[in-house]
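Appendix B, Record 12. Input sequence as logged:
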Amino acid sequence: MMTNKASPVLIGMMGAGKTTLGKVLARRLGFAFVDSDHEIEAQTGVRIADIFEIEGEPAFRAREHKALVQLIDTPEIVLATGGGMVLMAENRVLLQAHRPVIYLHAKPQRLWERTRHDRARPLLQIENPKARLEQLYTERDPLYREVASHVFETGEQSLDQLAEKVLNALQSGS
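Logged structural output:
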């Protein structure tokens, strides 16, 4: 597999800022911005929430894997993945083979503040969504760290400052 080291992949929990930062990075790099969830919606013609409801999470994860396989080696893109992309071992292998992988980390309380009014998050449409978000964070944080070549805290600085830090890391290759 040929990897394109100049095209970063953004991973992290829902609400971590992958889409927001990804668009800024893409603009600054002169790349296209691609969101794997949006690609799945475009291919199926159905919202992610509807796929979860109709087909269930395992079927969605299979669609997510297929999207990653299709997108991972696309040159000159900034790819933002869905929050659960790291759950499948096959996806973690693909991500690790594709550097750089940027983990946008945020604490559960901050994630909750950013997502609590968002009805498009199927995993949070339950009786106690805050507890569910904390559980997802506990499960996923080690997986994100396993595949990340860089970890950046979100919400600690402005979007421009964060973008600058990420771009510096990409340029230095460290």
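The longest strand covers residues 101-105.
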